[in-house]
Amino acid sequence: MNISVNMPPCVAFHNGHFTAEDLITKVTRSGDLAGVFYDTDAWRALPPETAIYQVEMLKSPQGEGELYAGTTHLNPGRIGDEFYMTRGHFHQRREQGEVYFGLRGTGLLLLQDEQGKARFEQVSPGSVHIIPGATAHRLINTGTEVLSALAVWPTIAGHDYAALAQGFALRVVLQGGKIHGKEVQNG
Questions:
Q1: Which of 47, 100, 170, 187 could covalently link to 129 via disulfide, CB atoms 3.0 to 4.6 Å apart?
Q2: Where does the record place the Glucose-6-phosphate isomerase prokaryote domain (predicted)?
């Protein structure tokens, strides 16, 4: 008896890229991140086409019980003294969680609840991050190479960027050659 076996998409754990064809890919450039970095003069000085991060996702059916799988590739760099980071978001459906797996590079995952309480988790190859519902999340690359993290989340979760119009309560900066978390007033 012959067994029919389908080869599923694969992710290369050393770099986070999928082997699947027909991926959804989105590049976020510095010009797309107005209001995200606190040093607006340094942000304006960076060419707006500068790639900050790329997300590649497997196509997935939409609906209850369906999942996305995707990888964020966050470039190293700083705008002023603030490290490159993703925009960050809550989910539109607040009860939906997400899981991140660190694949390469080093950085931080910034987590913030709806009351503004924020904390960091170290992201590195092999790290696993359970992001509960009602928690905003943002990746920050504090290293010198691309930070890649694989994520799995419900297709129905959606993204709510507007809830963070004032920004996150914490920022990560390089001061005196050291990485510091910094509390921010009104983003």
A1: 100
A2: 29-178
What gap in Å lies between CA 64 and CA 154, rounded to an integer? 8
Overall average pLDDT of the 138-162 stretch: 96
Mean pLDDT of 142-161: 96
What average pLDDT does the segment 80-95 reach? 96
User: How far from 10 is each of 99, 117, 132, 161, CA to CA, in Å?
Assistant: 17, 36, 26, 30
How far lies 6's CA from each of 18, 52, 164, 176, in Å? 16, 35, 42, 53
Domain ranges of the chain: 24-183
The terminus-to-terminus CA distance of the chain in angstroms comes to 63
Average pLDDT across the chain, whole number? 94
Fold (topology level) of 24-183 = Jelly Rolls (2.60.120)
> pTM to 2 decimals?
0.93
Look at residues 154, 172, 163, 17 and name the one whose alpha carbon lies nearest to residue 85.
172
